[in-house]
Amino acid sequence: MGGVIIFILLLTSVKSQHNNVCSRPELDDNIDTSGIQRFISPGVEVALSCKQGYTPVLGPRKIVCTVSGQWTKTKFQCIPKLCPYPDPVTNGEMYYEDTTYQSMINYTCNEGYILTGSSFSVCQANGTWSSSAPLCTPVTCGLAPIPQFGLVIYSRRVRGGTVDYGMVATYSCLPPYAVFGKATAECTASGYWTETPECEMVMCPPPENIERGYVSNNNKLEYDFKEKVRYGCRGDYVLEGSLEVVCQRDGKWSEKPSCKAPCSVGIQRGRILYKGVKTWIEDFNPNVVLHKDVVSVYCMNKVMKCGYAVTTQCMDGTLNIPECFEEPNAINYTVHSNLLPSEIEQC
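Structure tokens predicted for Beta-2-glycoprotein 1 (347 residues):
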């Protein structure tokens, strides 16, 4: 019986030791709880601080164990530190969701560029990034291969013996050679040029004559690539098409021009309007209108009793007289010419 009494007294003693003490406070994960004991006596203050990489906000920044075994209230919080917004990467991309502590940026370079530096950066506890933004440097190629009898022109100025990714080389050949293959090559992301064309000799036979015309120079048996000759027309014939033809890379001449015939105005009596001048047909000498020239004859508006000019155009020897034109008889033409459509008030 005495042993039972001793056990009850010991249990009461242990319970009294833990009665009205505070257990370790329940705090946010970002608050530093290191050094806080499991049980704390009433009246003891505990200063609150943040873990590394977090910043304290609100308060109070200490809690006190009360006689009731409860901690005083606080709104103390620890928020992650912020790193500055990262600078953009020229010729590259960066991917990130946030700039808070422990956030990460991943860097990549565009096609044709090589990443120099770290491909990632982490926001550290001191509010700085673990590494600066990398550089994206272009892939380089050697100078473009030049075919025999060929020339190359670069899309940008070249310094030294290398060029950057994306550089374009345009090829030409010295006559009588012509470019066969694609006339441009490009420095690729692999550091090599696309296919180089070749220069092959091209010759054209003597150019053919054209009807009612002539060739300025037709005394050679062969003509070099890109060599040119000129055409002309005889008399009042008009050249239609290019004045010059050129020897092309397929060994043929570009399209020849043609000589178009002039026209005559097919009326016997009347007045016409040509190049801004009104002329009686018998005074229109020579009766020649060049190809594509425009001439007007006069028609009568019988309802309004007024005259009006109607145009027609010479097309390779053909000049159609408008249907509204009525050629006057000899008496009206000579005696009453002042009543002709060309002479009365115009509509």
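Residues 92-138 form a domain with the Complement Module; domain 1 fold (CATH 2.10.70.10).
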